[in-house]
């Protein structure tokens, strides 16, 4: 199959390398020094169970639209930060309009799929996320990744509301499995997205604010309670959004992050490097949906405000 990885950062490059290693074609869409390194020196992946070091085809969004026929792709995978989704889709709008190629999001947050649907239609939208994976660009063209690297996905917003996408999702599941990418198909992918947001909202803002890795945060007696509280607020927001998350979901996600390993979150790395923080994509849905209930997300609101102030100080 032929793929394009839109936003080939740490995690996007890892998945792209897995697909390439399995014999598929995958064009990496990146920018800046990272793009230059990919074009000149190839892609280097360092993972406990997977090492990749070979030339790749890489371009920027403009080059993708100029030099490649959108109809030639079987799938576009959107791995960019959520804050870039709308602008990237707008830049690609004319190109996307020349085909019926579907788009799979593997991003953080619960708002990306709505933006994709608004651009290309529900029938071309696949919701999804990367889970059990941490990946960062340690130098242009060089990726350090850890974790099982699973992709959870499904027709957006549900198989029942987008049945024509079910067959492609099943085919993609088989392709991912053959490429040694663990995956899980959901009839209601919104459930998977909100479960992932439980982790993202629980630890990403606090690690960015404190500059502590996840292990240090979850072992600290005060911060540990704060993480759990923000996870509870996320589940409450999910319920307000019509996605039933229970205490068992919160407990499972809390146990997962406590035992995943001592890692830097993507938001922590963005804070260190002065990049855009995914506060709007991660914290704001929790805050907005909880405001519709009798219990505002007080802790998430506090941490988000402190984080934004710290980032702009």
Structural summary, described in words:
It is a single chain. The protein is α/β, with parallel strands linked by helices and 313 residues long. It folds into 2 domains: 2-187, 3-Layer(aba) Sandwich (Rossmann fold), CATH 3.40.50.720; 191-312, N-(1-d-carboxylethyl)-l-norvaline Dehydrogenase, domain 2. Helix content is 50%, strand content 18%. It is built from 15 helices and 12 strands. It has helices at residues 10-21, 32-41, 61-67, 85-91, 93-96, 112-120, 166-178, 189-210, 214-219, 221-240, 247-259, 266-272, 279-282, 284-290, 298-312; strands at 2-6, 25-29, 43-47, 50-54, 58-59, 75-78, 103-105, 125-131, 134-139, 142-146, 150-155, 183-185. An 8-stranded mixed sheet has the order 5-2-1-6-7-8-11-12, sandwiched between helices. Strands 4-3-10-9 form a 4-stranded mixed sheet. β1, α1 and β2 form a beta-alpha-beta unit. α8 runs parallel beside α12 (266-272). The longest helix has 22 residues, at 189-210. The protein is globular. The N and C termini lie far apart (47 Å). Pfam families: ApbA, ApbA_C. Pathway: Cofactor biosynthesis; (R)-pantothenate biosynthesis; (R)-pantoate from 3-methyl-2-oxobutanoate: step 2/2. Keywords: NADP, Oxidoreductase, Pantothenate biosynthesis. Its EC number is 1.1.1.169.
């Amino acid at each position: 199959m032929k793929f394009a990885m839109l936003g080939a950062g740490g995690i996007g490059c890892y998945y792209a390398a897995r697909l390439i290693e399995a014999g598929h074609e995958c064009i990496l869409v990146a920018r800046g020094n990272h793009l230059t390194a990919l074009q000149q020196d190839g892609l280097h992946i360092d993972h406990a169970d997977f090492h990749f070091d070979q030339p790749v085809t890489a371009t920027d969004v403009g080059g993708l639209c100029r030099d490649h026929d959108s109809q030639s792709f079987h799938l576009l995978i959107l791995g960019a930060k959520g804050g870039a989704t709308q602008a990237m889709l707008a830049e690609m709008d004319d190109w996307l309009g020349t085909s019926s190629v579907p788009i799979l999001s593997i991003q953080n947050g619960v708002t990306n799929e709505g933006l994709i649907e608004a651009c290309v239609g529900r029938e071309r939208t696949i919701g999804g996320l990367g889970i059990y994976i941490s990946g960062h660009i340690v130098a242009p063209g060089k990726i350090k990744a850890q974790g099982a690297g699973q992709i959870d996905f499904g027709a957006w917003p549900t198989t029942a509301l987008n049945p024509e996408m079910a067959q492609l999702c099943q085919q993609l599941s088989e392709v991912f499995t053959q490429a040694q990418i663990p995956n899980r198909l959901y009839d209601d992918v919104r459930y998977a997205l909100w479960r992932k947001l439980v982790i993202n909202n629980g630890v990403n803002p606090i690690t960015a604010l404190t500059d502590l890795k996840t292990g240090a945060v979850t072992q600290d007696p005060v911060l540990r309670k704060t993480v759990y509280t923000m996870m509870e607020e996320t589940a409450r927001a999910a319920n307000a959004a019509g996605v039933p998350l229970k205490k068992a979901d919160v407990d499972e996600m809390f146990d997962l992050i406590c035992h995943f390993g001592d890692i830097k979150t993507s938001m922590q790395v963005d804070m260190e490097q002065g990049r855009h923080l995914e506060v709007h994509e991660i914290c704001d849905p929790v805050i907005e949906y909880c405001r519709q209930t009798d219990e505002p997300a007080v802790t998430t609101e506090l941490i988000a405000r402190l984080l934004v102030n710290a980032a702009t100080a």
